[in-house]
Design goal:
The chain is mostly beta strands. It has one helix and 15 strands; from the N terminus they run αβββββββββββββββ. The longest helix is centred in the first third of the chain and has 24 residues. It is elongated and about 75 Å long.
Length: about 260
């Protein structure tokens, strides 16, 4: 009974606040003005995550709740005019893992990925609550990986330079494959979206666009120290283009 009363009180408080906010904003725009900052992330409810193992292996992970845009970035915007904004999205991820596998080896992996996307937005009139926009942004992403492998039976050490490697059960290096490799990507995006200001300082939104990118993947060298042997997986480059969309609802605040 006490929990029910608390929930009812909370619901009534929120309802009263939203109603009062709506009355106070009914005669003026809720959208940001020149000099305002916004910050946001994307609420990806029941989305499909796409992953690329950088060796020709691709996959999908369904029904995942995520926070972040398509690159798991945090985004900020500065409105230098009422209808124009500078935007910057960024992210840094660090992974450090230790595994022991059934085919008699253990591995220690580390990886770092950094992305930064500067851009511009042009907002149109819309309504007092709705702000449609178009824009463009540059996209820079870099990944760095390293791995050390130890054979449990022989205590032999193997270093994977500039990548992650799936060690083969046969111990023949050339039968293994890469799970990740160092890369650099640069791209250009054209985009369109909209912000809907639920409250004067809080908005929800959507965004989609078209991107073109160039990626350079580096050589990966797998080096066994004793007996001394190594194999090199040659790097390559690729061009990619296509439409994209944030697979969720953007949520942000105005400061």
């Amino acid at each position: 009974m006490k929990k029910a009363l608390v929930l009812l009180t909370l619901a009534a408080t929120i309802s009263s606040f939203v109603h009062a906010q709506g009355k106070s904003d009914s005669t003026q725009t809720r959208k940001p003005r020149a000099g305002n900052f916004t910050t946001e992330l994307t609420l990806g409810l029941f989305t499909t995550n796409y992953f690329n193992n950088y060796n020709g292996s691709y996959g999908y992970q369904n029904n995942v709740f995520t926070l972040g845009n398509i690159l798991s970035q945090i985004r900020g915007r500065y409105f230098y005019q009422d209808n124009k904004a500078l935007r910057l999205s960024f992210n840094y991820e660090h992974n450090s893992n230790n595994y022991a596998y059934s085919n008699n080896y253990k591995t220690s992996r580390s990886g770092n990925t950094f992305s930064i996307n500067p851009g511009l937005e042009k907002h149109f009139k819309g309504t007092s609550k709705l702000s449609p926009y178009i824009g463009t942004e540059l996209a820079f992403t870099a990944g760095r990986y390293h791995e050390n492998i130890t054979d449990i039976n022989t205590s032999g050490e193997i270093e994977v330079q500039k990548g992650w490697y799936n060690y083969p059960a046969s111990s023949n290096f050339e039968e293994g494959y890469l799970y990740a490799r160092n890369f650099n990507t640069v791209g250009l995006r054209g985009l369109a979206g909209l912000d809907y200001y639920v409250l004067s300082r809080f908005y929800l939104g959507l965004e989609f666009g078209y991107s073109v990118s160039y990626s350079k993947y580096q050589d990966v060298k797998v080096v066994q120290k004793e007996p001394a042997t190594n194999v090199t997986f040659k790097g390559y480059s690729s061009w990619n283009s296509g439409a994209y969309a944030n697979s969720g609802i953007r949520a942000g605040f105005v400061f």
